[in-house]
Prior knowledge:
about 260 residues, mainly beta, Tachylectin-2, Chain A, four-stranded antiparallel β-sheet, about 0% helix, about 50% strand, disordered C terminus
Amino acid sequence: TPGSWDEFASERAPFVLKEGGVFKMWYESGEPRQLGYATSPNGVTWTKHPDNPILSPGPDGYDRDAVGHGAVLHEGIYKLWYHAIGDEGPIIAYATSPDGVNWIKHGPVLLPDSGAWDDRALWGPSVIRYQGLLHMWYAADGSNTQPSIGLAVSSDGMSWTRISLGGPVFGETTPIGDPHVLLHGSIFKMWYTDYAAGTIKYAESLDGVNWTPWAGNPVLEPAGDPGAWGEPVVRFEGDSNDSLLDGLRITGGQGRE
């Protein structure tokens, strides 16, 4: 939008909830990176909130350089886990809100694990509640590992325990990340980014830990310029097995929509 906080950056990394017939989107934009909020009656035509950005970097500390790529749950209050960059490098932080617009930050909740596969950077959280516990799939890399996907669990959203397999719960021969996980029936379904090819891929799991990639991958690939697609968000409507892209779009790492 000309003259606004996001004038010189593309909207990316959307997360969408549908509540009371209204689509609600939190998205990353701006320089430095910040979070904006928009609503839509149909997932196509969006109205940005007048108070955007609704979450910005702090003056110093763990999120002084950037905030973005959030995952939201509405459980009485809105709960946001987001990617932050600051004194401790790329990490996952947590905030809560009564309305999805005015946020209270609670600080870092998942940091690089010294000596482990994810000892360098964490980003791209995806959070759902399953069997009473919060489950977070996240992208990470380490000093000796390429980007892959890890899993942590929590009872309160602030204290997280990694599910350790001696490495990530899901990885490929190429760098991957930006997981978006849904539980559909008894099957965990994940859409994720292949950074090398710039494509969206899909995998399934019965327990959220052991994943099988779809044999027909990728599910979405660029028509022309490579590296254009990423950060998928998917939702299921009604009883249909058809998947709908939240906001009816995927925004890629180079602003491709």
